[in-house]
């Protein structure tokens, strides 16, 4: 199948996730086209059989560019099997309120765009301390402290479960929900 993957990223983890998805789909013989949302223009939808959109949460919001893309192409997306990957740190935790929040945020993102993905998957992201500016370091220390975690500011920490993602893309889009 020809599968389009469009992603937005702020610190790079969603790019890694989108690349992983593309390579896993390609391993299974699919034709995966990976595009950063800024480059996702002039898409020949006639050749697209399924699509994945991936974006990450910052201050409770997914990137606006991805929201605009989803809204502009809701009709094309709704006519195919589609999957929304929402990357966050809340997805790495077990706090039920936070997990309910990220589900609500993802659903609102899709509703606002008029997009009805077959599946929404919450994916745990990463702390990228080595790439944060002063504000982000401060914000992330604060988030970590709230969770009772101590952060080593010199170190990145990845929570993405690559095995679970691999298992997802071993079945999707054939087992599209
Ligand atoms: C300034 C900032 C704000 C963030 N806000 C949230 C948030 O509201 N909820 C959450 O679960 N994760 C939050 N995160 C964590 C990111 O979603 C996580 O680091 C993710 O891996 C980022 O993906 P990206 O590298 O593709 O942008 C935040 C991270 C930063 C740096």
Automatic annotation (TrEMBL):
<dbReference type="GO" id="GO:0070819">
    <property type="term" value="F:menaquinone-dependent protoporphyrinogen oxidase activity"/>
</dbReference>
<protein>
    <submittedName>
        <fullName>Protoporphyrinogen oxidase</fullName>
    </submittedName>
</protein>
<dbReference type="InterPro" id="IPR029039">
    <property type="entry name" value="Flavoprotein-like_sf"/>
</dbReference>
<dbReference type="Pfam" id="PF12724">
    <property type="entry name" value="Flavodoxin_5"/>
</dbReference>
<feature type="domain" description="Flavodoxin">
    <location>
        <begin position="4"/>
        <end position="149"/>
    </location>
</feature>
<dbReference type="GO" id="GO:0010181">
    <property type="term" value="F:FMN binding"/>
</dbReference>
<dbReference type="GO" id="GO:0006783">
    <property type="term" value="P:heme biosynthetic process"/>
</dbReference>
<dbReference type="InterPro" id="IPR026816">
    <property type="entry name" value="Flavodoxin_dom"/>
</dbReference>
<dbReference type="InterPro" id="IPR052200">
    <property type="entry name" value="Protoporphyrinogen_IX_DH"/>
</dbReference>
